[in-house]
Amino acid sequence: MQQVADWQIANFDGLYSDRKKPHHPLDWTNAALYVGMAKWASMADDDTYYEWLKNIGEENEWQLHKRKYHADDHAVGQMYVELFRKYKDEKMIAPTKEQFNFLMFHPSQSALNWDTPYHQDRWNWCDALFMAPPVLAKLYKVTGEKKYLDFMMSEFKASTDFLFDKEENLYYRDERYFDKLDNGTKVFWSRGNGWVFAGLVNIMNELDPKSEEYAYFLDIYKKMAEKLIEIQTPEGHWAMSLLGQEFYPTPETSGSSFYVYGLAWGVNNGILDKEIYEPAVKKGWNAMASHVTKDGMLGYVQPIGAAPGKAWPDKTEVYGTGAYLSAGTEVYKLYGGE
């Protein structure tokens, strides 16, 4: 994990998946990296990683990214709340609170259908469930203000009612995939469901396990977990199209790392049966670690997309690193680390 974290910081502006310029520091891609980096920082032996994250916050005046309603541009708020927890500096979360307060008083009127105007002003694509809801859950936890929780619950339920396939216990990426088939199988994008699965964990970490809100997320989580170990590949990863292993044999490490993270968390918290799920975690983690180069670059990360595609051993992305670091923190605990 340290090797991967150090490599990523050293190559933070690197162009590793044919991009023409680096991502903006507040972009969702980097926000997903920061989520994992903050988890790694909490177990590292020094504050170097916290300082690196804090520097990004300071340079950007603790602002969220530019689109007021878009969940992708809210994701960096997760890192801000984690830094607030460590440093207790109110300015780190003040802009995030202000922006969500605005959204709650001026909620989007858009429908969740893909072709409606301003459709991504609400969480109508499954990636969004990793980006924005955990920020609201964290704000609820650190402020004690229930309005953040209530807003998150109503929007999350609307998205789930729209995107969740009750037969397969997986999420469609968005409305465009409801009736699509890929080689005769329904299209459930691996990283898209990885976003959701990791998002569920990051939300539940903030809630009272005895609350009805927690029970709602736990129900979805357990259904997904059961499906995920059914469809894990013999090599340990998950296919880019979750139901189409034979058509997508190439490993993919961003979605798969999120599954390892979520499953290991479930075992660690006594939610998933260790005898059943630990072998899947072990196989998954070993598969992920086998795709780290000797320098510390995580390979086989699918480039930015919205559907199953391709991945290569020499291509990476910051969100893949974030997923890997998230996974590692839970795997480390599972095998005896503090």
Please render the helix and strand layout as text.
Blueprint: H1 2-10, H2 28-43, H3 48-59, H4 77-87, H5 94-105, H6 128-131, H7 133-143, H8 146-163, E1 164-165, E2 170-171, E3 181-182, E4 185-186, H9 190-204, H10 212-231, H11 253-268, H12 274-289, H13 318-334
Antiparallel strand pairs: 1-2, 3-4
Which runs of at least 5 residues are low in confidence (pLDDT < 50)? none
Main sheet makeup = 2 strands, antiparallel
Q: What helical percentage do the residues reach? A: 40-55%
Order of helices and strands: HHHHHHHHEEEEHHHHH
DSSP strand count: 4
Question: What value does the Rg take, in angstroms?
Answer: 18 Å
Keywords: Hydrolase
InterPro entries: 6-hairpin_glycosidase_sf (IPR008928), 6hp_glycosidase-like_sf (IPR012341), Glyco_hydro_88 (IPR010905), PolySaccharide_Degr_Enz (IPR052043)
Protein name: Glycoside hydrolase family 88 protein
GO molecular function: hydrolase activity
What does it look like?
The model has no long low-confidence stretch (mean pLDDT 97). The chain has one domain: Alpha/alpha barrel (Glycosyltransferase), CATH 1.50.10. The chain is built from 13 helices and four strands. The protein is mostly helical and 338 residues long. The longest helix is centred in the middle third of the chain and has 20 residues, at 212-231. The radius of gyration is 18 Å and the shape is globular. The relative contact order is 0.13.
